[in-house]
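Hi R.,

Here's the chain you asked about this morning:
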Amino acid sequence: MRETVLTVFSAVLGAIIGSFLNACIHRLPRNLSLDQPRRSFCPSCGKTIPWYENLPVISWLALRGRCSGCHAKISPRYILVEILTSGLFLAAWLTFGLPLAPAYWLFLALLVTATFIDIEHFIIPDVITIGGTAAGVVLSVILPGLMQTDSRLHALFASLGAAALGYGILWLIVEGGKLAFGRKRHVFKEELPFSWKRDGDTATLTVGEDSLLWHEIDFRERDQLVIESTGASIDGRVLEGSPVLRFRYHVLLDEGQEKPLDQIDEIKGKLTAITIPREAMGFGDVKFIAAIGAFLGWQAVVFTICAASIIGCVAAVAGIFLARDRSGARVPFGPFLALGAALWVFFGPAIWDWYFNVMARPGHDLAF
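And here is the predicted structure, written out as tokens:
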């Protein structure tokens, strides 16, 4: 009876935590406080949601996915996160029980939150990555079983070492990818009109019929976006000849001088080529794998990176065939890392042992 109650409790707790994670997913990337307002609200009309309309899973189904006030659609993501978190909490309880299950609950909650924020915003907030790394180290000391040891000191160094290993591997991939593929130059057969227009705190770069939000371009401090024009103007001031416009994220390099972009309203003209900085992946992913290592250890780091790379490649190939009109769209890597880490939690050690047992047999070359 006691086991049944605890099993049901873990599933219900997961649904409740999933409801909280939905608030995190909505608020964190928008820099909204999780405490103010404390009550959930409709993103469309701002109506405060009463408790009886905020019951995990049940309320979304009862309201048929719409706000009771303005009748705007409520994203299916809300019920998906609640059901997913409930299922993961239940699986972690059945797999690990006490005392490890609560630690895995926290870890899985971080994975779910990071996944859905990264899918929508292409970022993983530091509160998840850096905070997750710190939580992983602390919990590994409290529960050394997370690192498959009885020694708290051993668990501390194992957690720190795994976090450093994960960070180091992806840091090398990011930096190496930046050196090899950090710029993409597009050359056009004919002149195309272009414009850079500021709108408050953001801006839009338009080339021909294609537009790109300025903050979505992968700028680093030294990176430049270069426009090779046949003529251009800055706020109505016509530039001489065929100027080459060089942008950093916050400034335009105009005749050797840095002019802040927040002092410019519009740049327009015609271009023949454009060079855009790009990243293989963001540094949020680098910090995310450190958090995964801090919770799960070095073997999980290796497994997660390999699994995420394989799954990501399969998804990318499938995307090319299933959505050809979006084959060049950005794809976040964080969800693949989260999926790889979740696979490790429930199946990874068994897969690891099976693989190396097979490779250790005569006639096989050991490779991973």
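One quick note: The CA atoms of residues 166 and 302 lie 8 Å apart.

Cheers,
M.
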